[in-house]
Amino acid sequence: MNNALWIALTVPFLGTLLGAACVFLLRDNLPNRVQKCLLGFASGVMVAASVWSLLIPSIEQADSVWPAAIGFAIGVGFLLLLDFITPHIHLDSKPEGPRSGLSRVAKMALAVTLHNIPEGMAVGVVFAGAMSGNADMSVAGATALAVGIAIQNFPEGAIISMPLKEAGHSKTKSFWIGTLSGAVEPIGAILMILLASVLTPLLPYFLAFAAGAMMYVVIEELIPETASGKHSNLGTIGFAAGFILMMVLDVVFG
């Protein structure tokens, strides 16, 4: 189980780190078409993960739909509350130039950081279920979820670091801010794993909670950005690709 723990802690965070590293590899900001594809892909991964890795196991474990419904509603409400009380800007907001200042940069990073909280919790709670011997979950399926979230974290890291460089910040500073936005994921994962014994009776609720929070992120942030402006069809194609990949990973390895 030590290997499983390291997967839960490092794989999703690695996706953010690699995305932030684009600041060293690309001269200009990510092209609009590429951003549309990546954001659509991330949306597809999160929707598929919410259904196959979280909601379906929640219903199967509880042998009832109500814990899933309640947990999902609480997850949506939790992210809605965070959006309401925390000052941040949406992912489609761009820095205004070299004079935009760190306060605006911090708000952009905070937006992505908030979205990483339920993703870390999702990985942690699925690993907790697998490690507790839950028949409806497996370490392989939990690993597939971690890999899927790592893939969708890649564009999020790039979305922070690349505009920061364009706004006049150094590559190193832009990289570290983009990377640190994903630091909450391993924290959320390890918290869920440490509480595994306590969570077992409430696991269906926590699974659905993570699904609701992730779906809120998709609907509130990712989908509007992929559908706005030109090349929205590329976002749709990316969504389909991400959904199919995550579905296959979960079914084959779950």
Features:
mainly alpha; 254 residues
In words, what does this structure look like?
The chain is an all-alpha fold and 254 residues long. It has one domain. Helices cover 81% and strands 0% of the residues. It has 11 helices and no strands. Helix 1 (2-20) runs antiparallel to helix 5 (101-131) and helix 6 (139-166) packs antiparallel against helix 11. The longest helix has 31 residues, at 32-62. The chain is globular and about 50 Å long. The two termini are 16 Å apart. The model is unreliable at 95-103 (pLDDT under 50).
Helicity, as a percent range? over 70%
Say how many strands there are.
Answer: 0
Any idea how many domains? 1
Radius of gyration: 17 Å
Structural class by sheet pairing and helices = mainly alpha
The termini sit apart by 16 Å
Specify the overall morphology.
Answer: globular
Low-confidence stretches: 95-103
Task: Figure out the total of helices.
Answer: 11
Taking the sheet with the most strands, its summary is: none
Mean pLDDT: 81
Short description:
With 254 residues, the chain is mainly alpha-helical.
Q: What is the topological layout?
A:
Blueprint: H1 2-20, H2 22-25, H3 32-62, H4 66-85, H5 101-131, H6 139-166, H7 171-180, H8 184-194, H9 196-199, H10 203-227, H11 232-253
